[in-house]
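Narrative progress, year one. The postdoctoral researcher (J.K.) led the effort to move from monomer predictions toward full complexes, under supervision of the PI. The following entry was the first complex the group processed end to end, covering 559 residues in total.
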Amino acid sequence: MAFNQIMFILFSAMIIVFSVLTVTSRKILRAAIYLLFVLVSTSGLYFMLNYQFLAAVQLTLYAGGIVVLIIFSILLTSHLSKKFEHSGWKKNIFSAIASLAGAILSIITILDYKFSATSEVAKEVDMRLIGKSLLSVDYDGYVLPFEVISILLLAAMIAAIVVAKNGGPAKAQSPLINQK
Amino acid sequence: MLFDIVSANSAPLPSEPWWRVFYDFSSLTQSINTSLNDAMSPFWTTVTEMLIIGVLFLLFYAVVGLFLVYAERKVCAFMQNRLGPNRVGPFGIFQTIADLVKLLFVELIPIKNADSFLFNLAPFIVIIAGFMALAAIPFAMGLHAIDLNIGVLYVIAVSAMGVIGVLLAGWSSNNKYSLIGAMRSGAQIVSYELSVGLSIITIVILAGSMQLSEIVEAQRAGWFIFRGHIPAFIAFIIFLISSTAETNRGPFDLAEAESELTAGYHTEYSGIKFAFFFLAEYMNMFIVASIAATVFLGGWMPFHVGNWVGFNIIMDFIPPFFWYIGKTFFVIFLMMWFKWTFPRLRIDQLLTLEWKFLLPINLVNVLIMAFIVLMGWHF
């Protein structure tokens, strides 16, 4: 078996096992850590495909950003001794159906797509190409999604400032805001 | 022009004496690779090479960690007008080895009511993050484990993952001190990561590449801290401040402020698990110092001054590895100097410094640097 096949099997096994553990764990922080393992293995897959930029972004945004935020909010809200109750059979059945439907949908999509094998060597993705296509207004350019996401981010930041102000939006003029 | 490209080093020597390997490691690594390829199949070659590199990094990690602990105590003593460790071995150089042996013998205390899985996992996450960052650092010409084309981004990404270990350690210890320490550390690292990234982006604009080997190569004509005028210098200062904060070192060591939190997030750890955190702190310092040395101070490039050919040739005689180590330890010395000179910040002062001062300065600095590169004013 080739080296990349072994690595692929390893990574996908890790992704599957830890995904299942993420949703079945009864301790919330452990679930977050299993999610971290899933995201790191996904970035391992990207590294294997030689798409290093996406892999590093996966690590920064998901592993370093989102999981840290999740863990941080768990730290603020939940205590170690807290355990989730077992969910009822109704919930179990419905979530099983939902995840099965999702799995079938994505498997059908993948099987539908014609993957054509080539003998070309793996290409390195140039950073300049990524940067230029992010800001390009051409047919393959991504300037519109880029700007839309920037506006979304701006809105989120303004909302965060308003919420974090003392007393919330209603008391925005409170003299206590700048208390040192 | 002051920093002309000097081609003194480019003329190949007529014969290749054995010590040339210290100037260019690529022939050595190539010969190891070919001899392994002759002996076994490509699959096992890759496995063996990974094992060799892993063992080398483990050794490097342990040796540098031990040395840095010793160096910290000596520098601290120097700052406080003391002698520091001076009993075990000449100048006390075996003191940290004795300390390590002692730590190995200390009992590992299991914590009742702690989440033992996460409690034991946390030190490993911190250590693994350090190892992953170490893999992408260019130590000398040809001495580079993986040369990713987004090297800088990768190093920032993986070194930021150490905070997860700190957060886990604090929460799973089931201890208020640990929890407060972990939360401080989380807030601190998440905010200062921005400044680290932006100050490196300033130099990435100048270098035009994120590949660490290319960044080093681009500094053959002069180190970026000199070539980038004032913006590069400001970026270097900001990088020093924010990376000191990111490694949880004084004056930003609120996460383990011993006067308030006993030991912060690692209060409950003992023996070798505590040693892992302790070692990881020093290795993180080593990693950020080598990033600073690589990105701002030219990595393993020797110091050249314009047209002083004789001076430049003398500088070329010092092997690149020693240039790299020298610059890294210079930055480490600066960081230790901070630790033993400045008083610890409060958490609100810490966040004010980042969000109200460093971040705006940094954003303006990136703009200025982009403008300078656009106009071609750098040299």
